[in-house]
Amino acid sequence: HQPSTMTMWTDADWDKPGYVNGKRDHLFVKKTSAGAVKCTLFNFKRPHGRAFHVAWFAFFACFIMWFAIPPLMVTIKKPRCGDTSSDLCMKDCVAGGSEFLRIYEATAGVAEDDLAKLYKDKQCAKCFPHKGGKGMGCGGIGLDKNQILVSNVVSVSGTIIIRVLIGPFADWAGVRITYSALLVIFSIPGFLASTVTTYEGLVVVRFFISLVGGSFVITQLWTTIMFHSNVVGLANATSAGWGNLGGGAALAIMGQVFTAMKKSGLSNDQAWRRSLAWPPAVLFATGLFAYFMTDDCPYGNYSEMKKRKAEEPAAVDDGSDLQGGAEPVSVAGRSLRVASVNWRTWVLFLVYAFSFGVELVVNGNIALYFSQAFDLSQGDGGLAGSLFGLFNLFARSLGGWMSDKFNERWGVRGRLWALFICTLLMGCFMLVFSNVTKDNGGFGGALGALGTWALFLAMTEGAVFAVVPYVEPTAVGGVAGIVGAGGNCGALGGNFILRIGTRPGFMLLGWLATISAFLVPLLWLPGVGSMFRAQTENLSEAPAPALNLEEKKVEEAKPPATREVQLTPMNPAQAPSMNPAAQAPSTQQSMQPMMAPVMYGQPGMMPGMMPGMMPGMGGMPMQAHAMPMGYPMMHGHG
């Protein structure tokens, strides 16, 4: 069956193997009717495959632009160049009366230490616009250590704001328009970064660049809309991991681009400015492509769907349009309120602050740290630091997989054990890395410790969101938003901590991360228990499921002829209230059995699962279900 139009689809278009209610039920491979296995990962067809690949690539490109400046900070912090025809450069530092006269008369045979002394002199360094190396030459905007740290703090601050706001905006405008607008608008400060000449200008530009961090929310929302619950966790984890990979890619690529610019004959100043120009260009082009060549959901774009709906005869009003009793933004606000008063949310907030938050700190500082602590060039320092981010390719999903396996063996309490183990090992190896120096373990030891630390850090990130759905099932989106914001708050605090020194700062963060692991045993999940004790009574008590706002929005936008009938519990007396106020109880409110297979191992019960929490990201294995599941707004975690 061919699509009804190029950009509109109906239920009939997806009435075929591989799709459930319009959503694709496979990501990497699928079985054909003949029983053969077919690779579908590189399927770029609209709407599902196109949305997946554009989502992760856009997030990846955002991360590169977000962290394009730190790998070049060795050069950006150099003093501004002076006039090479001035008396300082032509006489004092080269041709007359200064202590450097004998050094510069002939470089052949001159001691390397003497030349380094010339290039590093605070005054004479301004006369060498092409000289690279630690503390040598000029071509930056003249930054001191504290100014660098403040700019790093500012570079993650804007993300906290936009991750809270952009989810409801995407509810209103649609994912495609929201993502396109974010990419195009915030490519502008990326271009302006190559024009800054002052510290104040750099701070302002880095704040606005940090707003591209909101791309994570839209990426997860898009894959949640396009993929069925049996594979959406894998789709979310893969798109998140591949997107986060942009942090490591920035460290690896930017230094090499700068080196290539220098080899072409450009000065330090010209090289770093031109190196910063290409990431925003990629963002701008991706934004245009997303707007014209992708779709909001499996049925097309919301605007076209609503237009078709208005042109067709009205369907019998079954009351489904009133389900939930509130608009998406108000329900999102309720979800945040419910989640914010649950103390368990804040435990995971702290754990995520010392995992994803520390990852952002490392991305912003590791290149400069390697260059200074191990005497590496700017390019080599960035390449070494990129090892940290490259573990996102697989390790985040590995944390979810570990949580799934522990869940199979020990139930949901096993997920708490998986989180505790990953967090504890993350903190321990961060301490190991912070104790490795040039003379104690050397560069090789530092890389080994960095890689092991990065492995368990990314696994912790995956394990955290494997626990999120069980904290407050009536407000999973709110919990996810607050926990995710913990990552950015951790980045803010972590950058301030580095004011005491990079190595001492890493050590302190390592101790705090280790301590955060011992908060996990304090978690008591209703209907589950804790790491050391299972709940033995009132197992039937659980909160009502949360509303699935995006599935509701897709359903409302579909033409009446193709709208699905909302399934309801067999016994109406047992149905939960559709009043949103009634759906915001404490985690101890009871509910009657509904048409769903499993909750906490109890047949007939179902939590308000977030679709992203499925195998591959740490969710419960799901079977066919009779109701939309979960609240898909996944604001803030990244």
β-strand number: 6
Order of secondary-structure elements = EEEEHHHHHHHHHHHHHHHHHHHHHHHHEE
Question: How far from one another are the termini?
Answer: 38 Å
Helix content: 40-55%
Q: Please state the structural category.
A: mainly alpha
- Residue stretches low in confidence (pLDDT < 50, at least 5 long) are 1-5, 95-110, 314-330, 539-550, 560-637
The shape, in one word, is globular
Percent strand: under 5%
Taking all Cα atoms into account, the compactness measure Rg is 27 Å
Q: How many strands, what sense, and barrel or not for the largest sheet?
A: 2 strands, antiparallel
Number of helices: 24
Q: Mean pLDDT, rounded to whole units? A: 76
Strand order of the largest sheet: 1-2
Give an overview of the whole structure.
The longest helix has 32 residues, at 232-263. The relative contact order is 0.13. The chain has helices spanning 48-66, 73-76, 87-95, 101-104, 112-120, 145-173, 175-185, 187-192, 199-210, 215-226, 232-263, 268-275, 278-293, 302-311, 328-340, 343-353, 356-373, 378-390, 395-410, 412-434, 442-467, 476-497, 502-517, 549-557; strands at residues 19-20, 23-24, 29-31, 37-39, 598-599, 602-603. It has 638 residues and is an all-alpha fold. It is 55% helix and 2% strand. A two-stranded antiparallel ribbon has the order 1-2. Strands 3-4 form a two-stranded antiparallel sheet. A two-stranded antiparallel ribbon has the order 5-6.
